[in-house]
Amino acid sequence: MSKHMVFDEIEALRKKMNDQYKKHSAITPELLDLSVKLDQLLNQLPSSVRKTH
């Protein structure tokens, strides 16, 4: 899987997570854990991949 595909997947998961939060207006420990993991993955991608989106 290319870095761009990984970035797109992470962004899609973040959108899904944000949509869930808006719908339920509650931050669960699972939601917080997912957010932290997604941020860590995004930080591992080169900035050139992130800037193209």
Task: Describe the overall structure.
With 53 residues, the protein is mainly α. It has one domain (3-44). 81% of the residues lie in helices and 0% in strands. Helix 1 (3-24) packs antiparallel against helix 2 (29-44). The longest helix has 22 residues, at 3-24. The two termini are 17 Å apart. Pfam families: SpoOE-like. GO terms for molecular function: protein dimerization activity.
**What is the terminal separation in angstroms?**
17 Å
Number of domains: 1
**Percent helix:** over 70%
The residue ranges in which pLDDT falls below 50 over 5 or more consecutive positions are none
Largest sheet: none
Specify the overall morphology. Answer: elongated
Strand content: under 5%
**Secondary structural class:** mainly alpha
Radius of gyration: 12 Å
InterPro entries: HLH_DNA-bd_sf, Spo0E-like, Spo0E-like_sf
Pfam family, one: SpoOE-like
Protein name: Aspartyl-phosphate phosphatase Spo0E family protein
GO molecular function, one term: protein dimerization activity
Throw out a few tags for this protein.
53 residues; 81% helix; elongated
In short:
The protein has helices at residues 3-24, 29-44, 47-51.
Please describe the topology of this protein.
Layout: H1 3-24, H2 29-44, H3 47-51
GO molecular function: protein dimerization activity
Pfam family, one: SpoOE-like
InterPro entries: HLH_DNA-bd_sf (IPR036638), Spo0E-like (IPR018540), Spo0E-like_sf (IPR037208)
